[in-house]
Amino acid sequence: MDDLETRELRYFAAVAEELHFGRAAERLGIAQPPLSRAIAQLERRLGVQLLERNRRGVALTEAGRVLLRESRLALDAVAAAVRRTRRAGKHPLVLATKAGASHELLQRLLAASPPVEILLCEVGEQAGLLRDGSADVAIMHHPYDDLAGFDTEALQVEGQVAILPAAHPLAARETLTLAEVSDVPDLPMARWPRLDGSYPDGPGPEVRTQSTLAQLVALGRTLLVIPASSRAWQWPEHVAVPVVDAPDVTTVIGWSPNSHSPEVAALVRNAVALRAEPQLSAGVQYLPDLLADPAPGG
């Protein structure tokens, strides 16, 4: 029988992550003997060895590494399903979006939709909120956000601008290039975290929040390059200058492929309808409405 219980996946994930039966049992709040029996039974049912046990400890086999990866995905999906089910019919949809991003698009979407709860987050957090069920939909940006595993619709394509201290000489320029903003000795470029949470090398400050970044730019300590629509948060002490050779950024609306919510479908359709509206900001181009029925749930 191929069916696995979530309890079995939790037990195995705990052992696989701890690589120690005693610590895993303590983490799960159970005794070690029944945990050992459960793992042995799981291996018999699957017909593969998941763990190598010897005097030095516990190690994952190749089959064990596969099951650990799949267990994490399955357990996350179950937790997300529980959160979405508890919220269904009781509260408005939750839309996750990065603070300060796609401001005008978001305003139009909220004006055209039923009540939506906004969950403002920092760089790269939208994907995690969608995966764990904390959000129903999210506004994200390609190529910067993690879109893997989601259904998405592209809403707009835009260029990028450099946000500079108003007093800096580069702020007087009409346009800039990536080479020019990447090599400013007195104004190193801010470093955002990658999708894996690490930061690229460089002399600029590591930042995660818009408030920290805005303060550092205003103090003349850093600059950044961001999508043109994100300049809505800039301070009077900032100046935005187009970066002519920066790669375009595509704003998308994303949702779980398992969603069959009519409310999510309606919100996605409203977002897609905005693609036909006139341009709202300089450097922002709305995409043509190419799909007849792009939203989930038919």
Automatic annotation (TrEMBL):
Name of this chain's protein: LysR family transcriptional regulator
InterPro entries registered for this protein in UniProt: LysR_HTH_N, LysR_subst-bd, WH-like_DNA-bd_sf, WH_DNA-bd_sf
Lineage: Bacteria, Bacillati, Actinomycetota, Actinomycetes, Pseudonocardiales
Pfam families: HTH_1, LysR_substrate
Ranges of residues in domain HTH lysR-type: 4-61
SUPFAM superfamilies: Periplasmic binding protein-like II, Winged helix' DNA-binding domain
PANTHER family: HCA OPERON TRANSCRIPTIONAL ACTIVATOR HCAR, TRANSCRIPTIONAL DUAL REGULATOR HCAR-RELATED
Keywords for this protein: DNA-binding, Transcription, Transcription regulation
Protein family: Belongs to the LysR transcriptional regulatory family.
